[in-house]
Design a protein that fits this description.
With 470 residues, the protein is mostly helical. Helices cover 83% and strands 0% of the residues. It has one domain (10-460). It has helices at residues 10-42, 45-81, 85-112, 114-120, 125-140, 142-157, 162-185, 189-215, 230-262, 266-282, 284-302, 306-340, 354-369, 372-387, 392-416, 424-466. Residues 456-470 have low confidence and may be disordered.
Length: 470
C-alpha cells in the first residue's frame, strides 16, 4: 500500500515503516544464520569457516550494488514526496538501466578476480577450494539479488515497507528449504548453499515484478517514459555512485578485518563468523530505524518539509538509544548460547577447538555491545543525510570507518593477537558516529537558514504584488 510520509505524526510513521523493515531484515538474518547452522552441523566446522571467510569478499561487491540501488531509489522517493508522478516513472526506468549495467559489471568482475581475491585475504589452504566453489556460484546470483533489492526499493520509496517484507519472508523460507535439501539429500556441500540462494532469489524477482506490475500502477513502465535522458541519469548517478562507494568502503574494511582474522586459522575464523552473524541479528532494529529515516527524509525533503525531518530525527535518535541499551543486556545474556547453536559440539566435532570457538565468540559480543549506541548514531544520521540527497558526508564517514577499522585490526592484532580484531569495528563506529552527528547538525542549520531566507523573500515578493494585508 502506498503511504505518504509527508503527513501525520513522525514517530508513528517511522515506527510503522520500521517494523516491516525490521521483520524483513530479521528473516534475512534468520536465513543466513540457519544456513550457517545447516552447514556447521551437516558438513563441518571447516565448511562453516569457508563460507564465513569468503563472505566479506562477496559483500564488497554486493554492498556496491545495495548502495547503488539505494541511491537510485532516493530519487524515486523524492519525486514521490514532490507529487511528481512523471518523475517517479522516469526514475524507475533510469534506475533499472543503471542497476542492470552495474550488476553485469560486478558479476563479470567478481568471477574474473575471484581466485586472486581469495589469495589476497590469506585464505587457509584447507578451506580454499570450498570457499572458491561457494563464491563462484554466489557470483551468478548477483544480478537477481540486485534486481530484488531494486524492486523492493521502488516499493519502499512509495512508503510501503510491508510488501517487500512479504517477498523477503518468502525468499528466505525457500532459501532455507533448498539449502537443507541440496546439502543433506543431494550432497552438494557448500555449493548447495549457494545454489539455494541463486534459485530462491530468481523466483522471488519474478514474483515481485509481476506483483509490482499489477498492484503499483505508478511503477509501471509506459512507452512515453521509456526515453533515456542524460540529465535524469546524471541526477540518479550523482547520489547512487557515492552511496555505492560508501557501502563498498564499509564492506572492504570488513574484508581487511577478515584477512587479518584468516591468519589465525579455521577455529578463530569460525568464532568470528558466528559472532558477526549474531551481531548483525542484534543490530537489525537499529538498521530498520535508519532505513526508515532514509525514506522519511527523502519524501519530506522532496516536499520541502525540513521541520518534519528534524522532528523525525529526534524521535529516531531516542528510539535508537533505547534499543542500544536493550541490545546491550540481551546479547550479553544469551550470546554464548547462540554461538553454540552454530556448531556441532559433540563427538563429530573432531579436529577443532570448540571451547576456543565459544570463548572467542563470547568475547567478541561482549566488546561490541558496548558500542551499539554509536552504531545507532550512524544508522540514523547517515541515512537521514542520504535521504536529503547529500551523499558526501556519509561517504567521508565511511572512509573514516575504513581507516579506523583497518588500522585497529592490523596494529591491535599485532599487539594483543586476535583479541585486537574485536575492537576494530566498535572503534570505527565511535569515530563515524560522532562525525555524522556533527555533520547532521551542520546541514540542518545550513538548510534552516536557507529555508528562512527563502520564506522571507517569498513574503516580500507577495507584499510587493498584493500590498500589505489588513
Amino acid at each position: 500500500m502506498i503511504n505518504d510520509l509527508t503527513t501525520g505524526h513522525p514517530l508513528k510513521l517511522i515506527v510503522q515503516f520500521a517494523i516491516p523493515l525490521l521483520l524483513g531484515n530479521l528473516f534475512l538474518q534468520l536465513y543466513q544464520i540457519s544456513d550457517m547452522i545447516i552447514v556447521g552441523h551437516l558438513i563441518s566446522v571447516n565448511a562453516l569457516a569457508a563460507i564465513g571467510a569468503s563472505a566479506p569478499i562477496y559483500m564488497v561487491f554486493l554492498m556496491i550494488a545495495f548502495g547503488f540501488t539505494g541511491g537510485l531509489t532516493v530519487i524515486t522517493a523524492q519525486r514521490f514526496g514532490a507529487k511528481d508522478e512523471d518523475g517517479v516513472r522516469s526514475s524507475v526506468f533510469h534506475s533499472l538501466l543503471a542497476a542492470l549495467a552495474l550488476s553485469i559489471i560486478l558479476t563479470v568482475g567478481l568471477i574474473y578476480f575471484l581466485r586472486p581475491l581469495l589469495h589476497l585475504t590469506q585464505m587457509p589452504t584447507e578451506i580454499f577450494e570450498p570457499a572458491y566453489e561457494f563464491m563462484y556460484v554466489m557470483c551468478l546470483s548477483t544480478i537477481m539479488i540486485v534486481l530484488f533489492n531494486l524492486l523492493s526499493g521502488f516499493i519502499r520509496a512509495l512508503g510501503d515497507s510491508k510488501t517487500p517484507l512479504y517477498f523477503l519472508i518468502f525468499c528466505s523460507l525457500i532459501n532455507i528449504a533448498l539449502n537443507f535439501v541440496f546439502i543433506k539429500y543431494c550432497g552438494w556441500g557448500v555449493v548447495g548453499s549457494a545454489l539455494g540462494t541463486l534459485v530462491s532469489n530468481t523466483v522471488s524477482v519474478i514474483i515481485c515484478f509481476i506483483y509490482m506490475w499489477q498492484k503499483f500502477p505508478l511503477l509501471r513502465l509506459q512507452k512515453e517514459y521509456i526515453t533515456y535522458s542524460p540529465r535524469v541519469m546524471h541526477e540518479h548517478l550523482k547520489i547512487a555512485i557515492p552511496m555505492a562507494l560508501q557501502f563498498s568502503i564499509l564492506s572492504f574494511s570488513i574484508m581487511i578485518i577478515q584477512s587479518v582474522c584468516n591468519s589465525f586459522g579455521p577455529d578463530i575464523i569460525a568464532a568470528f563468523a558466528t559472532a558477526f552473524r549474531i551481531e548483525q541479528f542484534a543490530t537489525q532494529p537499529l538498521l530498520a530505524i535508519g532505513l526508515s529515516m532514509a525514506t522519511f527524509s527523502a519524501q519530506n525533503w522532496g516536499a520541502h518539509l525540513l521541520s518534519r525531518i528534524r522532528h523525525g530525527v529526534r524521535y529516531a535518535f531516542i528510539l535508537s538509544s533505547i534499543i542500544s541499551i536493550i541490545g546491550f543486556f540481551v546479547i550479553r545474556s544469551i550470546g554464548s548460547g547462540m554461538i553454540a547453536m552454530f556448531i556441532d559440539t559433540g563427538d563429530n566435532a573432531t579436529g577443532n577447538n570448540i571451547a576456543l570457538i565459544l570463548e572467542v565468540g563470547k568475547q567478541y559480543l561482549i566488546i561490541s555491545t558496548m558500542f551499539y549506541f554509536f552504531l545507532g548514531l550512524i544508522f540514523v544520521f547517515r541515512n537521514t543525510i542520504q535521504g536529503m540527497g547529500k551523499p558526501l558526508l556519509p561517504l567521508l564517514s565511511c572512509i573514516l570507518e575504513l581507516i579506523v577499522r583497518a588500522l585497529s585490526a592490523v596494529y591491535l592484532a599485532k599487539l594483543i593477537g586476535y583479541r585486537g580484531i574485536m575492537y576494530a569495528g566498535p572503534l570505527a563506529w565511535f569515530a563515524a558516529g560522532i562525525l555524522v552527528l556533527c555533520g547532521y547538525i551542520y546541514y540542518i542549520r545550513k538548510f534552516s537558514q536557507k529555508t528562512f531566507l527563502w520564506k522571507m523573500g517569498e513574503v516580500k515578493q507577495r507584499l510587493r504584488i498584493n500590498g500589505p494585508e489588513d
